[in-house]
From TrEMBL:
It comes from the Bacteria. Pfam families: META. InterPro entries: DUF306_Meta_HslJ, HslJ-like_sf, Hsp_HslJ-like. Residues 45-146 form the DUF306 domain. PROSITE patterns: PROKAR_LIPOPROTEIN (PS51257). Gene3D superfamilies: 2.40.128.270. This is META domain-containing protein. It comes from Ferruginibacter yonginensis.
Length: 156
């Protein structure tokens, strides 16, 4: 009975210490001198209390006021602006750095020359299944494909 108890204790301890660890992830889609990134996975707190400003969408740099915020709370809400319309919805963490976003709803104000960016931005969010945070950069991915990148600014 004692050997079984010792094995169970070791496995439990190993599991809890490995849940919030730093791992090297090979990510060829993200520019980096060594083609690897040091990231901390499984730390969802890095998403909260920041306004994430859109920088790139589908590999192209964008000039937009589009942003997203992950609202800390039991309801796991997401909100933001597409550069024209406000949106909100839900998200859920699946495990470590995997996420499901949506469904999303948005206002329907008429805006000049923003329809394509708005549609692509909302689709990108709903197609996201993985997230990475390194310093103040959020990368949203679908599996290994980078969908968009964001820069953090403090929430006001």
């Amino acid at each position: 009975m004692k050997p079984l108890l010792i094995i169970a204790t070791l496995l439990t301890t190993t599991f809890f210490y490995s849940c919030d660890s730093t791992k090297k992830i090979n990510q060829p889609s993200i520019p980096d001198t060594e083609n690897t990134m040091d990231i901390t996975v499984g730390t969802s707190q890095k998403l909260y209390n920041k306004k994430w400003m859109l920088q790139t969408l589908d590999g192209k740099s964008v000039q937009s006021k589009a942003f997203v915020q992950f609202l800390n709370g039991t309801e796991q809400r997401i909100a933001g602006n597409t550069g024209c319309n406000n949106f909100s919805g839900t998200f859920s963490f699946k495990s470590f750095n995997t996420i499901a976003i949506g469904p999303l709803v948005s206002t329907k104000m008429a805006c000049l020359n923003t329809d394509i960016l708005e549609t692509s931005f909302l689709q990108m969010l709903e197609n996201t299944n993985t997230w990475l945070v390194e310093t103040d950069t959020l990368t949203l991915l679908n599996n290994e494909k980078v969908l968009g990148t964001f820069t953090a600014t403090p929430m006001q």
